[in-house]
Request: fold
Amino acid sequence: MDRAVVVLDAIVPVALLIALGAGLRRVPGLGDAFWAGAERLCYLVLLPALLAVGLATADFAAVPVVAMAGAIVASLVAVGAGLVALKPLLAIDGPAFTSVFQGGIRFNNYIALAVAVGLHGAPGVPLAALTTAAIVPTVNVMSVLVFARFGTARPTVLGTLRMLVTNPLILACAAGGALQALGLALPGVVVAAGRSLGQASLPVGLMCVGAAFQPHALRARPGAAALASAAKFVALPVCVSLACRGFGVGGMAAEIALLFAAMPTASSSYILARQLGGDAPLMAAITTAQTVLAALTVPLTLALAA
Reply:
């Protein structure tokens, strides 16, 4: 199947769910209290279930774990550090910067997994799982640290450590990674229940993004949205491509690492912005804009990398 068609097949449903959330926001009875509860459910239950079960059950056999993970983590740290270095030059406040930061480093793993399987079939699954395992803990720790520094709440060092060790997404990554490292298998019923909860995080999270989308947030800070998208669609893919060469990662593994790097930011970015004191309207605007832009940028990135 043509690569552009595979990408569109994965992105269009995501955009439709965001649009559905925007429409539902106007339905009587689905006001602020409803969406606040849905966001909290995603943050505390659905997203952690997705991460924990996904990492615990991933098959990493015959995958270049160290080299591929090293290339991805090094790239994320480099782009994140670059954004922080640019902060003094940006005419935006701290909460808005947290949205730019998340928009520059986070990724939509749902789209990436769908495209990876569409392009490579079953052989792409373990590589996609490893990429997810490398990215998810890294971006969550980096994001929590940025929220601690630039969000509305400015905790002490002890408070920042508490934010890290009590963050549901980081705890879920730690639990899933520990089970994977120890070779412990979850009971089948637990895996089935966890996967069901994780699958629910996609539609619920994206509808929350749509419900929170405010076009004026994008119009008010077009430069912030442009910087986040430049980091996400240009800087991060370039860094991953160079890092894969440096770490000796090639072929399908390098393409899938690049594919994930080129993804738009995820609905979890908005959930964290709401829960940790970021600029949630700007985050929703960046998420929506990047999802639309990805229909053009992802096929282009894959074509240039081919």
Observations:
- Residues 62 and 126 are 9 Å apart (CA to CA).
- The chain has one domain: 3-305.
- The chain has a mean pLDDT of 86.
